[in-house]
Specification:
heterodimer; A: alpha+beta; 6-stranded mixed beta sheet; 19 strands; B: little secondary structure; two-stranded antiparallel ribbon; flat
Chain lengths: ~325, ~110
């Protein structure tokens, strides 16, 4: 029984997973969906209510293939989008993309194996307002949050938050491709000047949260029933607001999340239909853990390296077991 | 409410896929204030790109990335894979290793 890894070619965590599964004697078929259709072929037939057939990588060497019915689990690790041959018109390319998504994605998504995570659950979990509801229902503390395209609502919310202040953050990717390069916007506290100029709020939905005073932050990696925690401490002003802003200013320490947080994490995972999640928390000065978000595809390599947590091994064991 | 029975994502988004690494950056210019979404007005450039991973390949036999000499990258990275001087968190340059990469689910096909 084989583990299918769907990942980009340049992914060191996937490299590690290939090696870890190999050390366990577990066959691996790694593919990037960007190889479809030119160097990756799907040949699937519906028999007795399930899809059987082959996923074939027509690669340089060796020729590699896997039978769909011989899969035990799938690690859905950010594969890139399908790539179609040059020469297609825009209309043809759009058609090919949607057919591939619904066809390839439909067959793979219907496989009755362990998914880490299932792409549909992954997609749904990306809706952060829904995450917040799931977290609150799981008993986790969440920050007061506003979603709006009304500047007046932003000012009202800022007044309600008082001296604690307000932060803004994206619902989705905080990065765009523009002006020939990549541009990012990390979490920011709103200055009076920014609150005074809200032109453009009305253009789309925006998210605002009351600033949560923090002693430190924590990343919690949930793998099946296991919950691993790391405290992330910031030693610069930028990293204090968003630790991604200044990696040089960070230090890490392995910690055990409180029992109620661990219960909440497992409940959120179950609610969202996930078996893996990278959770971010703020730990307040009084020790209160406040849920920020869960990323169903969040990175774990840096946590493993910085805090010595055996996360690749835990994930490899889960994929090899084929059951949560 | 369960996401399994009541999905939010439309059909086309239920199989999220990442942006190809070889996709060229957009040349779009920011719209003027008042037109540009407020959340984009604070966009800034990606900081401190790393010089690592400038040359690499993929070994289909071993199913992992290699350097130009064919050595697995995870064996030749200096020190731990996490490079604290980069924006990446798994030892790679942006954007492939950034935490939010899975949020990117292009609805438009990649133009080679």
């Amino acid at each position: 029984m084989t583990v299918l890894i769907l990942a980009g070619e340049r992914d060191i965590s996937a490299d590690r997973m290939v090696r870890a599964l190999g050390e366990r004697g577990v066959p691996v078929f790694r593919a990037d969906l960007g190889w479809f259709p030119e160097t990756l072929t799907l040949d699937a037939e519906l028999r007795d209510g399930r899809w059987v057939g082959r996923l074939v990588g027509r690669l340089v060497t060796p020729h590699r293939e896997v039978a769909l019915e011989e899969l035990r689990s799938v690690w859905y690790r950010s594969p890139s989008t399908f790539r179609f041959p040059a020469g297609l018109s825009g209309t043809e390319r759009q058609h090919a993309l949607h057919e591939a998504k619904l066809g390839v994605g439909g067959v793979l998504g219907a496989l009755p194996v362990l998914w880490v995570n299932h792409p549909s659950r992954h997609a749904d979990a990306g809706y952060k307002p829904r995450q917040l509801v799931a977290a609150a229902r799981a008993g986790l503390a969440v920050a007061p949050t506003l979603v709006t395209n009304d500047p007046a609502a932003v000012r009202r919310f800022a007044t309600q938050c008082g001296p604690a202040g307000v932060v803004t953050k994206m619902f989705g990717a905080p990065a765009i491709s523009e002006q020939g390069g990549r541009r990012v916007a990390l979490t920011k506290r709103l200055s009076p000047a920014r609150l005074a100029d809200l032109r453009g709020v009305e253009i789309s939905a925006h998210q605002f949260q009351r600033w949560a005073p923090k002693r430190e932050e924590a990343r919690v990696i949930a793998i099946g029933r296991q919950v691993h925690g790391v405290a992330i401490r910031a030693d610069s002003a930028a990293a204090y607001v968003d630790w991604r802003a200044d990696h040089d200013a960070l230090s890490y320490e392995r910690i055990d999340p409180p029992a109620e947080v661990q219960r909440g994490v497992r409940t959120v995972l179950a609610d969202l239909g996930l078996v893996y999640g990278a959770f971010d928390f703020v730990i307040g000065p009084d020790g209160t853990w406040i849920f920020l978000e869960v990323n169903p595809g969040g990175q774990f390599g840096f946590v493993e390296d910085q805090a010595g947590l055996p996360l690749t091994a835990a994930l490899a064991d889960l994929l090899a077991r084929g059951a949560p | 409410m369960t996401t399994t029975d009541d999905p939010l994502a439309p059909a086309g988004a239920q199989f999220p896929l990442a942006r190809p690494e070889t996709a060229p950056p957009s040349g779009d210019e920011p719209s003027p204030v008042g037109v540009r979404p407020w959340g984009l007005r604070r966009m800034g450039p990606v900081l401190v790109p790393s010089g690592r991973w400038l040359a690499w390949g993929y070994d289909h036999d071993r199913q992992l990335a290699t350097d130009p000499d064919g050595v697995p990258v995870l064996d030749v990275a200096a020190g731990p894979p996490t490079a604290p001087t980069t924006q990446g968190v798994d030892g790679e340059d942006p954007p492939s290793s950034e935490d939010w990469i899975n949020d990117y689910t292009p609805d438009e096909p990649f133009q080679p």
